[in-house]
Amino acid sequence: MTLSSHIHELKKKHQTLAAAVEDAQRSPSTDALRIVALKKQKLRLKEEITRLSA
Length: 54
Known about the structure:
InterPro entries: DUF465, DUF465_sf
Order of helices and strands: HH
Low-confidence stretches: none
Oligomer: single chain
Number of helices: 2
Structural class: mainly alpha
Distance between the termini: 18 Å
Protein name: DUF465 domain-containing protein
Largest sheet: none
Pfam families: DUF465
Number of strands: 0
Organism: Pacificibacter marinus
Strand content: under 5%
Radius of gyration: 13 Å
Mean pLDDT: 95
Number of domains: 1
């Protein structure tokens, strides 16, 4: 896997997590800890994308 394709896959995962966070925030039954965990995963992916892009 090339670096650019790896970054592309990470960006797709980041977008998927962003959608999951939005869905979880709209649902009143979603646990707040679940939302926090999703946001942390999303942040880790963004940091990895930034690190690899530099």
